[in-house]
Specification:
The chain is of the alpha/beta class. The chain has helices at residues 20-28, 47-52, 61-67, 79-82, 101-110, 131-148, 178-189, 201-210, 222-229, 306-327, 329-335, 337-340, 353-358, 367-370; strands at 2-5, 32-36, 56-58, 70-72, 90-93, 113-116, 170-174, 193-198, 215-219, 234-237, 263-266, 287-290, 293-296, 343-346, 349-350. The strands form two sheets. It has an eight-stranded mixed β-sheet with strand order 3-2-1-4-5-6-14-15, sandwiched between helices. Helix 6 (131-148) crosses helix 7 and helix 10 (306-327) crosses helix 11 (329-335). Substrate binds at residues 15, 75.
């Protein structure tokens, strides 16, 4: 198969979909790998490293899309890329369709095969291609939250871990999944007073067992959220419904119950956000303020630590990319249910129910294409 790796063009996105080591593994198996020139530089990988691994360099994004049967990316295509995507081309990347209708419509019109990292799902309901970036984003949410709690950045002026004789900051984490667990670990390690909320009692029991003494668990419901937001300094939204829009757990009216300088970090922004006042921001302009509450809603948080993120992502995606390249997408998805669940749009048909429901679009059973 001919595989193309395009350079990411989203604002301040420095990750790349494939490391030189990953390229070498695909080349070893007889595939051709084409890397757009300088695609890896933001993550610390030079063109020469890719050519030494057996890949070939193409000068432009247009040439890369034109050449490839499978495009590997990190972030969803943005408007300048829509017309570059061809009929029957396999695009393997994060899409987060349910949060952005224009992208969904563009990919329907392209007649491409859209296989989304975020909906590849194991039998235990875990999301293997979302987990590495969720781990990064969860840990970063505390790192960034701690920074924006500083007074010059309009926060409350509180040190996350406190000092002897002074109480630490109080951190509230909405969601006990991968993002929430990593956020809680990081916040606890920095000495904060942490509360993590979830709907699942078994999950709360598990977290209660593994977390240090400065992490408390609490059942998630509107009453409890309203009770806690007025006393917490940093609030992290870490809720995910695979392939669907995140629910609004913090509504506009709740901001007035928070103290001035409270910081909100919405890690669910890629899926529409779990904070009603959340609007996607960039690393260039990461925050805005509503009712004296600081909102940090960067849609590609792991892009700020691209070396770590690119390695973590390739570790997870490469085994699936090899299956797709070796067998073709139809056979690979038919033989691997995890990959089948990654299919969102095929030749203009929406084959992932949550995406169809998000925009009231016709839904087509994926079996139409795999049988």
């Amino acid at each position: 198969m001919i595989i193309g790796v395009a350079k990411e063009i989203k604002n301040n996105e420095n990750r790349v979909a494939l490391t030189p080591a990953g390229a070498q593994e695909l080349v070893k198996r007889g595939h051709e790998v084409f890397i757009q020139s300088t695609a890896g530089e933001g993550s610390g990988f030079m063109d020469e490293e890719y050519t030494e691994a057996g890949a070939k360099i193409l000068p432009t994004i247009e040439a890369t899309y034109e050449k490839a049967e499978m495009i590997m990316k990190v972030k969803e295509p943005i408007e300048p890329e829509y017309n570059l995507i061809k009929k029957d081309q396999l695009v393997f990347t994060y899409f987060h369709f349910a949060s952005y209708e224009p992208l969904t419509n563009a990919m329907i019109d392209s007649k491409a095969i859209c296989l989304a990292y975020e909906t590849v799902e194991k039998s235990d309901r875990s999301l293997p291609l979302l987990i590495p970036m969720s781990e990064v984003a969860g840990r970063m949410s505390i790192q960034e939250g701690a920074k924006y709690l500083e007074k010059p950045l309009k926060g409350r002026g509180i040190l996350l871990g406190g000092v002897p004789g002074v109480r630490p900051a109080k951190v509230l984490i909405l969601g006990g999944g991968v993002v929430g667990t990593n956020a809680a670990k990081m916040a606890a390690g920095m000495g904060a007073d942490v509360t993590i909320m979830d709907l699942s009692l078994p999950r709360l029991r598990y977290l209660d067992d593994i977390m240090p003494a400065n992490v408390n668990t609490f059942m998630s419901n509107e009453y409890n959220i309203r009770e806690l937001i007025s006393t917490h300094d940093l609030i992290v939204g870490a809720v995910l419904i695979p392939g669907a829009k995140a629910p609004n757990l913090i509504t506009r009216d709740m901001l007035k119950e928070m103290r001035p300088g409270t910081v909100l970090v919405d890690v669910a922004v890629d899926q529409g956000g779990c904070i009603e006042t959340c609007e996607p921001t960039t690393h260039e302009n990461p925050t805005y303020i509503i009712d004296d509450v600081v909102h940090y809603c960067v849609a590609n948080m792991p892009g700020a630590v691209p070396y770590t993120s690119t390695l973590a992502l390739t570790n997870a995606t490469l085994p699936y990319a090899i299956q797709l390249a070796n067998k073709g997408w139809k056979k690979a998805c038919k033989e691997n249910k995890e990959l089948e669940l990654g299919l969102n749009i095929i030749n203009g048909d929406v084959v992932y129910k949550a995406v169809a429901e998000a925009f009231n679009l016709p839904y087509t059973e994926v079996s139409k294409y795999l049988n």
